[in-house]
What does this fold into?
Amino acid sequence: MEEFRIDMRKPEEADPAEGARCAQLCFKINHTMPMTEEYNRLVSELFMGNIGEGSRIMPPLTVVRGNRVKIGRNVVVMNNSLFMAAGGITIEDDVMVAANVQLISNNHDLYDHQILTCKPVRLKRNCWIGAGATILPGITVGENAVVAAGSVVTKDVEDNAVVGGNPAKVIKRI
It folds into this structure.
């Protein structure tokens, strides 16, 4: 998976307008009655329409660069999710994301903190991310896989695997 870099000192790369758009929409979403037409409209706007039918995103949420997120059909994202999406986040159909999950597709360069290093995160069909788990840049969680609560995923998760721990390791195959 190829990394790309964003220099936060360059407005054309930092995209401050997208940062402001997401911050303002997250504030509105987090202060709007869930499961209403207004709420659903704001969530769709945050993800620029890239959210499939039957998907639910529960507040509060924090999304940075919502224009880099794609959510499939029948996805559930529970409360207190964090999407750091500069590297791109793709959530396929029928995925469940529990409360307090962090999907992190970017990090800061170790030597120049104004540079974001970005790699996409992908959650494949029908996987389940347990409460409080963190998925790091460049990670793909396989189809039907389960990530145990509190895990820190530093390597790709195979299809039909259960992983847990910090760093997450295979517990069993299903």
